[in-house]
Amino acid sequence: MDANIVVLGTDSVGKSALTVRFLTRRFIGEYGDIETIYSHHFSVDGRELTLCIWDSPYSQDLSTSSSMCEKRLQWADGFVLVYSICDRASFNMVTRLIQTIKTTKDYLGLEKVPIAIVGNKRDLHHRRTVLSEEGRMLALASDCQFYEVSAAENYHSVLMVFHGLVERVRESRSVVKKAAGIKGIVKSMSAVFARRRTDSL
Ligand SMILES: Nc1nc2c(ncn2[C@@H]2O[C@H](COP(=O)(O)OP(=O)(O)OP(=O)(O)O)[C@@H](O)[C@H]2O)c(=O)[nH]1
């Protein structure tokens, strides 16, 4: 299975730290401002996967320009929306990004896209300004997954984010396939009945 994942959030919330931690298991501390699409092969439960992860530095346009969002939506099978638990504005931006993604998706007539909301920098809990409950409530209200992680201190929590999202992508693909299958059956049955009706005339 192949899946494309877009990582978004305001500046310095740890988008690159999360991505690099998942890809290399390492936290290197400082990351450049380069827009990158990484490709990563791995296996989960005996299944081979290729993930392409689009990590882009924060841009003001993201929450306002629909063309920025359209480009990513057309490419993405899933989103990781990151905020820092120490930065209220970054959490507010995640709320706005969910709205922009949903509106743009409806406008383009695309299927529902899985989203993981990630509160990063859990190791800095003494500087916390966003409660876990707020993240959890936002996820519940917007039908997203929710995680609190520390890219700096915990590889496993980061792994769970990407594995969880891949699982949701897989599920949403099988729902689309099933719906297409049912549509196909209904179509062929209608064709048979229509033929019978014309035969009997
Ligand atoms: N304490 C702590 N610091 C972190 C964590 N994750 C990232 N950082 C630090 O936060 C800073 C920003 O991390 P980046 O990964 O560059 O953030 P970004 O969201 O990619 O930032 P932009 O590229 O500017 O959009 C760096 O100094 C990281 O070392 C974390 O879990 N805990």
UniProtKB/TrEMBL annotation:
Transport listed as a keyword: no
EC code(s) of this entry: 3.6.5.2
GO molecular function, one term: GTP binding
Superkingdom of origin organism: Eukaryota
Pfam families named in the record: Ras
Keyword Ion transport listed: no
Reactions listed under catalytic activity: GTP + H2O = GDP + phosphate + H(+)
PROSITE patterns per the UniProt record, alphabetical: RAB, RAS
Signal peptide interval: none
Key words, A-Z: GTP-binding, Hydrolase, Nucleotide-binding
Gene3D superfamilies per the UniProt record, alphabetical: P-loop containing nucleotide triphosphate hydrolases (3.40.50.300)
InterPro entries tied to this protein: P-loop_NTPase, Ras-related_GTPase, Small_GTP-bd, Small_GTPase
Sequence similarity: Belongs to the small GTPase superfamily. Ras family.
Listed name of the protein: small monomeric GTPase
Species this chain originates from: Alosa alosa
